[in-house]
Amino acid sequence: MEGKLTREPIEDLRVDLEDCFGVRDDDAEDDAVRSAARALVQAHSAGAATPFVGVRIKCLEAATRRRAVRSLDLFLDACGGPPAGFVVTLPKVSHPAQVEAMAALCARLETAYGLTDEALRFEVQVEVPRAVLGPDGTATVARLVAAAGGRCAGLHFGTYDYSAACGVAGPYQSMEHPAADHAKAVMQVAAAGAGVPVCDGSTNVLPVGGATAVRAAWALHSRLVRRSLERGFYQGWDLHPAQLPTRFAATYAFFRDGAPDAARRLRAYLDRRSEGVLDEPATRRALAGFLLRGLHCGALTVAGTGFDRAELRRHAS
Questions:
Q1: Which CATH fold would you assign to the domain 2-203?
Q2: What's the sign of the alpha-carbon dihedral 272, 275, 281, 285?
Q3: Cα 164 to Cα 166: distance, rounded to the nearest angstrom
Q4: pLDDT tens figures, 48-98
Q5: Distance CA 277, CA 175 (A)
Q6: Where, residue-wise, is CATH 3.20.20.60 in the chain?
Q7: Radius of gyration of the chain (CA)
Q8: 1-10 CB contacts, 8 Å cutoff, 24+ apart
């Protein structure tokens, strides 16, 4: 884990022009966008860029629509086009029409910058109840994925906006509140057949202050990361650099704790041996997928799984 934190502490970075940036005048946001883009270009030139990067623009509601489009256009212009691993995060989506508009915007920008079709993809951030269930009971989130026309790179859960909109009082807003769990379960089901990853939200309890407060925040963050992994959410937002050690510690522990049993069960299934658990073909894929994820994130080694990568990929498909 120390090697991971030294070599690649951040895998995916978002330049935030929405909530954390706040409302500024046009000149201030223009300057911030250009400055962030220049920093990203310099990081790529120095070989220090993260594998995945993006920008979270303002939402496409009427009040912020013009600013959202302008910032994205300026960012691409200042970067000279989208850098490798680039994705746009679209926040506070409440209706499929906003996703359709974002897909149309991406197509126009691709034409303007001479990019290939579908070079620009975006994540849909679910932060309002209407994005999960419509007033008629329809699972709106499934319609959001379809409305993206193949450009949806992920569904991201906004813990605090969503729970506040559901009427949850501030002290009880959490990634593990029942309202949050329900929303993420609906997102998970809607995305399962579409091949779209679902990303859990964040905790706003930061590891800052005295030693006691830092340890308590680390313990909470580690437990929440493990909880998300156990529920099938393999991505999550972190708000502070000091959350990175607990992110990787919890992730590595999750895969290392589960690897011996997963490898044993997969081998028994392939050898047609009964060991007290009747695994099915779907579970075979899940077991292989678990080991493969552990390899991809660096928690496991090929030798430790007893399978080579090609074999795991074959069984996971």
A1: TIM Barrel (3.20.20)
A2: negative
A3: 5
A4: 889 999 999 999 999 999 999 999 999 999 999 999 899 999 999 999 999
A5: 32
A6: 2-203
A7: 21
A8: 1/245, 1/248, 1/249, 1/252, 3/298, 4/248, 4/298, 5/244, 5/245, 5/248, 8/50, 8/51, 9/241, 9/244, 10/50, 10/244
